[in-house]
Amino acid sequence: MRMRCACSRHASQNKSLYLNDFSFERPTSQEAFTDAARRGVDVKIIVPAKTDSKLALHTQRYNYSELLKAGVKIYERRNALLHAKTAVIDEVWSTVGSTNMDYWSPLSDDEVNAVILSHEFAIEMEKVFAMDLAESDQIQWEEWKKDPCSQGSGNGLRTCFPVGCSASPGIGSLQ
Fold this sequence. Notes:
A hairpin with a 3-residue loop joins strand 4 and strand 5. Strands 6-5-4-1-2-3-7 form a seven-stranded mixed beta sheet, sandwiched between helices. The N terminus and C terminus are likely disordered. It is of the alpha/beta class. It contains eight helices and seven strands. Helix 1 runs parallel beside helix 2. The radius of gyration is 16 Å and the shape is globular. The longest helix is centred in the C-terminal third of the chain and has 16 residues. The chain has one domain: Endonuclease Chain A (Endonuclease, Chain A, 2-Layer Sandwich). The protein is 39% helix and 20% strand.
């Protein structure tokens, strides 16, 4: 929870916020990222293009529309499952760890993050972020809005997980 507050506070004041594999399912996280982007902060988020959980992947993508419309740049990392959560703000504040910014991690998971205030460390983190960007595809709003899973309605999950879909056994109960 403290990490979320730090990201929100720093993003409200600064010019760049680069995140790797952060979930943004909490409204406060999504709001902090969209507010920052609207103020001109360069917000870039790299998330995995594939995960070991279809439900997690579609939950992640459910929030893309609002983020993209606000100017947040979202990239999906090819050929890698991401687990480490990293963030760099303004080449000074960095974090590395395993804590998700969701409802469950702070309450039930054994997770930890290190927070480092160092220009030199942040520059190195941004180099790693740039390498991940090179292996990622940017999600473009004009293409994304054509995707039925991007719609912000209750039908989004039904569209992504149709009853009988071979990729979503047992998900039909969500309807």
